[in-house]
Amino acid sequence: MKQRTIGDREVSAVGLGGMPMSIEGRPDAERSIATVHAALDAGVTLIDTADAYHRDAGEVGHNEELIARALREYGGGADVLVATKGGHLRPGDGSWTKDGHPEYLKEAAKASARRLGVDAIGLYQFHRPDPQVPYADSIGAIRELLDEGVIAMAGISNANIEQIDQANEILGGRLASVQNQFSPRFRSSQGELEHCVKLGIAFLPWSPLGGIANAPELASRHAEFQKVADELGVSVHRATLAWELALAPVVVPIPGASRPESIRDSAAADEVELTDDQVARLSAA
User: Fold this and answer.
1) How large is the average pLDDT for residues 35-44?
2) N or C: which end of the chain has fewer CB within 10 A?
3) 3-class DSSP state for residue 124?
């Protein structure tokens, strides 16, 4: 696979999002592990997870432990960058809450490292701003984790341009990534993407195909994407990821997957060559 850069690490142009393997409707562990192994076989070297990717109360870190198990059983994966997140929580009733307190974030990161079985987390991202805690305080905790070597690289998620600049300043220019929602259906982070291009910071679109519920409707909702996919002879999902890759060299989409065939198709997006006209048509669609 072609390579892109996050901080000082080269990674595959398309990553694997682990959330569908651990929340509602999740498959059994064997299929999830097969999905991770299919991603690795396809050359994927970026796996995204979070301590909040779980379904029930009492299973915080379910996806982190699943990813760690899959990597162990694969017998390799030393070159894989595992990115995880903290600051977003699931009480177990289907809802999401936030905790951006510095003390919590520091303990959460150390717990994530233990579940992943690593001395230092490759990329740790503040999952979502907590309106009850000053953003600077939360990012200050991330900076401490970076300085202490608990994490190797720092990122943020669900951030606006002001927060990107603030985080990068607090981190002393060491902000490695911004993970925001971005897809044909959800483009309000276009400005953040363009800002990351200016700063040379990796932009990781989450739900790049529109999310678990909407990905199957990609073709019906966005006819131009299906038209371009037909022109190329590929799936609409692959064409969509190829479009995102064509937007900027800092873009590394992380489509979620819970089946081996899904991640195989997504991983091949970096082989699709779109014409300038096709990119323009999709961007305008």
Assistant:
1) 98
2) C
3) strand
